[in-house]
């Protein structure tokens, strides 16, 4: 049975996910069979495993850091918000329904057997489990029903490292307040503190470190600096979504719809020199991009209505007819069609007209399609003809069944012998320059050379050359980032002490 260590935080976005990923990488580098675990995750960024099960992407990142295949056992409960008051509940990779917050709060302890089944599956096949908490263990109104912080630590008999964000200010109050609000038995399970996002001279901080150790009785095991490492964030808190960056030579605008999911689909473009990826939520912010992306969403109809009411629908239509490339992913693909129907009330119910840019209609089924896919681009005559013959891979998560004129397909899903992945409408004649693309495949841009070829085509449209485009392997890039993170952990965290904590348990 594996030994466990748990990473909790004094607040959301304190750095739990990053520290968990870093520890996974360090343990892997040290020759340990390690896996991440988070009993309950709330996120719109999800991933589909090889078995077709759905899980949070944060644990996928941590699995990559640990060099193990992502498994739904690493994240047995995933909550995908559908509104401010409710979420779709996914248990061990399968959706069991949508619940208001109060209903789920009363129900969630019934999922403890599912949590422990998943945890034990991992523990039987690994030497170390690095568990991530959620929010803060000091949320005293939730303590009685806790299944993700100290409740999970108790179930796994795991010692706890507490991560605190110094960049926001008040770090010592956050540490002291968190520990003092915990019952004595839970406070005793916290074996070390890591201060995260520090800027400045560590010597100025040392008197405070000594005093907080004396007041709490818990040692400081590390002070991590503010790190310039490009690792995927939790979707709702990612700084990149609010970054008002300037447009570069190639400007890609992602429409920031309210329930946007899987925004990490576009991270690869940010690695290419001369390319900007901007997340925009108003006509004023849109500007004149080279490509507009409509991303995935947890509520296609609701976000289509928002697009309409914000004025962005009219602006996207105007740009499309002026020659701007429009690319829709999953829910964004559905929005580009003629009509969306929801006969089972999966989202809003009823029927709604869409943007009318693609010759497709979507009907929401009562069961989601969750599957990993591979395919190949073919039959493209337009701007992106340089993609022909290139393989791609990714995964699908959607309830919609989309009816497509097969004469318009531009890629084939070789894994399941379907031709629905990419479609285009309007003339592909470059003189008309009216090109609309859509796909259900998340991660379609990540394959080697795909994003670079898209950028090359956009450069050519502007009369520019691609000789300055650097060919980047996304997988190699991510591996380097995990190694950089592990180096920072080793340099700034007392790993000997962490190993002692892991060995001693609780």
TrEMBL record:
Superkingdom of source: Bacteria
One Pfam short name: GATase_3
The entry's keywords: Cobalamin biosynthesis, Glutamine amidotransferase
CobB/CobQ-like glutamine amidotransferase domain sequence ranges: 251-448
Transmembrane segments: none
Listed pathway(s): Cofactor biosynthesis; adenosylcobalamin biosynthesis
Family the UniProt entry places it in: Belongs to the CobB/CobQ family. CobQ subfamily.
Protein name per UniProt: Cobyric acid synthase
Native source organism of the sequence: Candidatus Avacidaminococcus intestinavium
Organism ancestry: Bacteria, Bacillati, Bacillota, Negativicutes, Acidaminococcales
Gene designation per UniProt: cobQ
């Amino acid at each position: 049975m594996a030994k466990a260590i748990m990473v909790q935080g004094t607040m959301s976005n304190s750095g739990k996910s990053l520290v968990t990923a870093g520890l996974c990488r360090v343990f892997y580098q040290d020759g340990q069979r390690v896996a991440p675990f988070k009993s309950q995750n709330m996120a719109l960024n999800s991933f589909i495993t090889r078995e077709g099960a759905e899980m949070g992407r944060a644990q996928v990142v941590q699995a990559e850091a640990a060099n193990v295949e992502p498994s739904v056992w690493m994240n047995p409960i995933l909550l995908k918000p559908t509104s401010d008051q409710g979420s779709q509940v996914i248990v061990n990779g399968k959706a069991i329904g949508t619940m208001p917050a109060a209903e789920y709060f009363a129900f969630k302890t019934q999922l403890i057997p599912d949590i422990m089944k998943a945890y034990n599956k991992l523990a039987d096949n690994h030497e170390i489990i690095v568990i991530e908490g959620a929010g803060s263990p000091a949320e005293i109104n939730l303590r009685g029903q806790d299944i993700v912080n100290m409740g999970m630590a108790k179930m796994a008999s795991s010692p706890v490292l507490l991560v605190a964000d110094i960049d926001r200010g008040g770090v010592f109050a956050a540490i002291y307040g968190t520990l003092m609000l915990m019952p004595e038995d839970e406070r005793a399970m916290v074996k070390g503190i890591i201060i995260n996002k520090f800027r400045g001279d560590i010597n100025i901080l040392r008197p405070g470190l000594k005093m907080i150790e004396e007041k709490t009785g818990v040692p400081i095991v590390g002070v991590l600096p503010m790190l310039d490492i490009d690792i995927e964030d939790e979707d709702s808190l990612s700084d990149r979504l609010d970054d008002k960056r300037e447009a570069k030579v190639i400007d890609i605008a992602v429409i920031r719809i309210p329930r946007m999911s899987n925004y990490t689909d576009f991270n690869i473009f940010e690695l290419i020199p001369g390319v900007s990826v901007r997340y925009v939520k108003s006509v004023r912010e849109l500007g004149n991009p080279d490509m507009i992306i409509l991303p995935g969403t947890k509520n296609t109809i609701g976000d289509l209505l928002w697009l309409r009411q914000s004025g962005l629908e009219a602006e996207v239509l105007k740009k499309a007819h002026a020659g701007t490339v429009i690319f829709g992913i999953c829910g964004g693909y559905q929005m580009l069609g003629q009509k969306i129907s929801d006969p089972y009330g999966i989202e809003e119910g009823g029927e709604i007209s869409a943007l009318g840019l693609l010759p497709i209609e979507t009907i929401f089924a009562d069961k989601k399609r969750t599957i990993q896919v591979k395919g190949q681009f073919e039959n493209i005559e337009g701007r992106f003809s340089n993609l022909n013959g290139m393989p791609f891979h990714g995964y699908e998560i959607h309830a919609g069944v989309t009816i497509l004129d097969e004469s318009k397909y531009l890629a084939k899903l070789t894994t399941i012998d379907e031709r629905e992945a990419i479609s285009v409408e309007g003339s592909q004649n470059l003189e008309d320059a009216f090109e609309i693309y859509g796909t259900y495949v998340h991660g379609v841009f990540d394959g080697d050379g795909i994003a670079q070829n898209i950028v090359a085509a956009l450069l050519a449209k502007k009369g520019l050359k691609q000789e300055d485009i650097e060919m980047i392997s996304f997988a190699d890039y991510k591996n380097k980032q995990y190694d950089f993170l592990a180096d920072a952990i080793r340099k700034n965290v007392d790993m000997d002490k962490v190993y002692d904590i892991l060995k001693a348990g609780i």
